[in-house]
Amino acid sequence: MISYLEGKILAKNEKFFVLNIGGIGYKILSHAEVLDKIPEIGQNAKIFTHLYVHEDARRYLLELYGFLNNEELKFFELLISISGIGPRSALGVLSRASVKTLKQAIVSEDEAFFTKVSGIGKKTAQKLIFELKNKLIKEVPVEKGSDSEETGEALEALVGLGYSQRDARTALRALKDIKGVEAKVKAALKFLGKK
Question: Which pLDDT tens digit goes with each residue over 118-171?
């Protein structure tokens, strides 16, 4: 609804800042990195925003979230599109690393990276990865020789040997410290043989 706002910084603290536009002060919530980078009080700023509307105790609440660039705004909107991830948790994710690093963590299925965020447990981290990986895989190329590429090749090999995708993924997740495609496949076969 509100794509961006441009005005003078009126006030700021560790959770939000106030942007003065034409005599109206807009309270804009954000994360620590944005709050550190915005200009000082009295200076102008252009902020990309998302208006979040939710119902609380039979009334509607409006919250404005702000970012310094459109890429971060779009990623925030992608995160809150996942059920179980609200705007506060999304800010927590964005405060962990750059958007590029976050996308790489999703594509490489790094659950532990996301479980360190307050309010995101293992199941939510798995859901986040499951729902976003396919959307991001084209824009975040897997580096040659990376663990993600090796895991993908090992997964293909196990499926080729007759194991289901689900069983193969479970085995490879349990053995994520092992390096090399061949070593991953051998360890996964041992793991699957014990089941």
Answer: 888 889 999 999 999 888 877 776 554 455 567 767 777 887 888 776 677 778
* Kind and range of the H or E run holding 46: strand 44-56
Count CA within 13 A, CB hemisphere, residue 110.
16
Write down the pLDDT at residue 6. 96
Domains annotated on the chain, with CATH: 4-67 (2.40.50.140), 70-136 (1.10.150.20), 147-194 (1.10.8)
- 162 in the Ramachandran plot: left (φ > 0), alpha (ψ -120 to 50) or beta? left
| CB-based burial label for 97 (10 Å; 0-12, 13-18, 19+) | middle
**Residues 54, 82: contact at Cβ < 8 Å?**
no
Is 124 strand, coil or helix? Answer: helix
Distance CA 142, CA 154 (A): 15
- Alpha carbons within 13 angstroms on the beta-carbon side of residue 24 total 6
| Mean pLDDT over the full length of the chain | 86
Q: 82 — phi, psi (to 5°)? A: -90, 125
**Residue 6's beta-bridge partner residues?**
46
Residue with token string 């910084």: 9
**Any idea what the Cα angle at residue 143 is, between residues 139 and 144, rounded to 5°?**
135
